[in-house]
Amino acid sequence: MNINFTLVGQAIAFAIFVVFCMKFVWPPLIGAINERQRKISEGLNAAEKAKADLATAEQNVQQELDLAKTKAAALIEQANKSANQLIEDAKSQAQAESERIRQQAQASIDQEINQARESLRAQVAELAVLGAEKILQDKVDVQKHASMLDQLAAKL
After folding, report:
1. Nearest to residue 153, comparing CAs of 130, 132, 123, 131?
2. What are the phi and psi torsion angles at 139 (to 5°)?
């Protein structure tokens, strides 16, 4: 066998092999590689879009949190104002109630003082009559001297 014939035979076999590979093997491999590149590219694009969406969502969340904090602060401020108003109302009602009770107590005291004065006048009148009886050693007519006793009681 001749080396030239072997080399030519191997070259022809290699050429047939290359043509066969280019016709039957390479197109599916290139298609698979292209499909993989397309999927990787889509994945990267989706990751970039997801990253952008995440940033937008985080910004929206931060805005919502700020808005919620503002609303919560406003609600707390309103609750504090309401509580202060309730306290002020309760204080004013308590003061009004204490004034009313004080006035009732003062009226009751004035009434008791008047009753004590009247009672004292009556006792003084009786003592005056008893004193006059003892002085005169005679019984004084109470009806007769009623006007005199009333005048005496009014002076006391």
Report:
1. 123
2. -80, 130
Reported as half-sphere exposure (CB side, CA atoms, 13 A), residue 103 has a value of: 6
The per-residue pLDDT for range 44-101, each reduced to its tens digit, is 999 999 999 999 999 999 999 999 999 999 999 999 999 999 999 999 999 999 999 9
121, 153 in Cβ contact below 8 A? yes
Could you tell me the end-to-end alpha-carbon distance of the chain, in angstroms, rounded to an integer? 169
Note whether 133 and 140 are within 8 A (CB). Answer: yes
Cα-Cα-Cα-Cα dihedral sign, residues 17, 18, 23, 29: positive
- Cβ distance 149 to 128 under 8 Å? yes
Residue carrying structure tokens 């290139």: 30
**In whole angstroms, how far apart are CA 80 and each of 33, 44, 85, 105?**
68, 53, 8, 36
**For a pLDDT cut of 90, what percent of the chain falls above it?**
66
Structure tokens at 145: 């001297």
Instruction: Read off the amino acid at residue 50.
Output: A
Mean pLDDT of the chain: 87
Looking at the predicted structure, is the pLDDT value of residue 137 above 60?
A: no
Q: Are residues 152 and 131 in contact, defined by beta-carbon separation less than 8 angstroms?
A: no
